[in-house]
Amino acid sequence: MTQSYLIALGSNRRGRHGDPRVEVRAALAAIGARRASSIVTSAPLGPSNRAYANAVALIEDDAAPPALLMRLKNIEREFGRRGGRRWGARVLDLDIVAWSGGAWASPGLVIPHQSMRERAFVLGPMVGLTPGWRDPITGLSARQLHARLTRRRALPNRRGAGEGP
Predict the structure, then answer these.
(1) Rounded CA separation 120/118 (Å)
(2) pTM of the entire structure?
(3) CB 96 within 8 A of CB 7
């Protein structure tokens, strides 16, 4: 049975295809993206100091989530990804963010992606691609999750207790 998957793509290191944006475009073709968001630039997480090119793609596949994850990891290796430091520079990072089957949990794979709700570089492109997608855990749409993450928060009142107006 064919399933729909949302795949997050990221690159912050030049690879055999070119700069990170070119790597992401090449990866979109390699994963068979049916539709894709715009490519956005985001600040790195962790120790890397290189900006990322990020996108989200919608693909259709007959594979179960673990089999698709193995295929994505093979594509990463074909693009030149090597094991190393967590959040370090990488030619390509592919993550299953969501799928049409709802939630999935197994060793090494949790869908929706555990950090998706805290990453504007995933939620922003998702809003452009699938604004009505609903998180099966929270029930919130991609648009609502993005708004919660990016809304401005009021600054605390700096006046001390007991001070008048």
Answers:
(1) 7
(2) 0.85
(3) yes
Annotated catalytic, 95?
A: yes
Strand partners, 96: 7
Q: Is-catalytic flag, 117? A: no
Q: Show the tokens assigned to 18.
A: 């070119």
Between the two ends of the chain, the Cα-to-Cα distance in Å is 66
For 80-131, the pLDDT digits (tens) are 877 655 555 688 999 999 999 999 999 989 999 989 898 999 999 999 999 8
Residue 137, SS3 per DSSP: coil
CB 8 within 8 A of CB 36: no
Annotated catalytic residue 62 = no
Neighbouring C-beta atoms of residue 146, cutoff 10 Å: 22
Q: Tell me if residue 90 is catalytic.
A: yes
Q: Tell me what percent of the chain is helix, strand and coil, each rounded to the nearest 5.
A: 30, 25, 45
Catalytic residue among 25, 61, 90, 119: 90
Report pLDDT digits (tens) over 38-86: 999 987 776 666 888 999 999 999 999 999 999 999 999 999 877 655 5
Active-site residue, selected from the candidate residues 62, 85, 86, 95: 95
